[in-house]
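Running this now, will post back.
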Amino acid sequence: MHPSTSSPNPPANQANRADERSLDDDRSRSTGPKRAITAKVVIGSCAFALGLVASTFFFATLVPIAVALPYRLRWRIITQWCHFNIRWLSLTCDVRYEIEGLSNLPAEPGVVLARHESAWETLALQRCFAPQAWVLKRELLWIPLFGWGLATLNPIAIDRRNRRRALKKVIEEGTKRLEDGCWVVIYPEGTRMAPQAKKRFGSGGSKLAINAARPVIPVAHNAGDCWPRNSFFKYPGTIRVVIGKAIDTRDRKPEDITSEAQEFIHATMKEIRSRNRRR
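Update: finished.
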């Protein structure tokens, strides 16, 4: 299931943060280069949508059975929905992907801070970090069919209106998920971003990693080039995912860890898109 996740970060100065959010919102409305909506794109996108809906109904029928199963088996069954739709996207829309940096993964699960540009990464990252728990807004669990399946995967559902309580829940439940052997995936921008847009990262993920004594793993990609946010149309191409080196969180401030992850992700995104333009 593909949630839109959040990174809680309680404001230290309400006025300054309000100004920052206003600036970031303006930037996030920036759109990348326009792509032609061809007949192939329309047909492929329609075919993908039909498969997405059909697979959602099918996997929803498995939820009552999966609930009674042990967590890891339940996770493997329900996330087959993600794997199916990634393969279906490749067949219908010619959207492929490459992953670099798998050798950078630590021996134990850590906190993943990933760029958020589309729904694609919430599906595809299941293959890199398994099993995993997302931090997401609780309203997603109320969606019929989709939310039911999502709820079986033990996500960390937060109320984004109460930032302090949300951060406390992320740290408490996130630490437990890590101790249980699950990766915790957080999208520190808090919302899907246009390809060229940037937004300051929330530090909730870094605070969780420090509390749990686990590393932070930054992940960059260019999924928004093929599956733009809030767009029905999917465009052919290759999505490149780059997993950075694990960031040691011992004896470090959360702001410094967050800044290091943000710098890696932004620089790597720029390099990915520059490389694609040269091809």
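The beta strands are 95-100, 111-114, 132-137, 156-158, 183-186, 216-221, 237-243. More later if anyone needs it.
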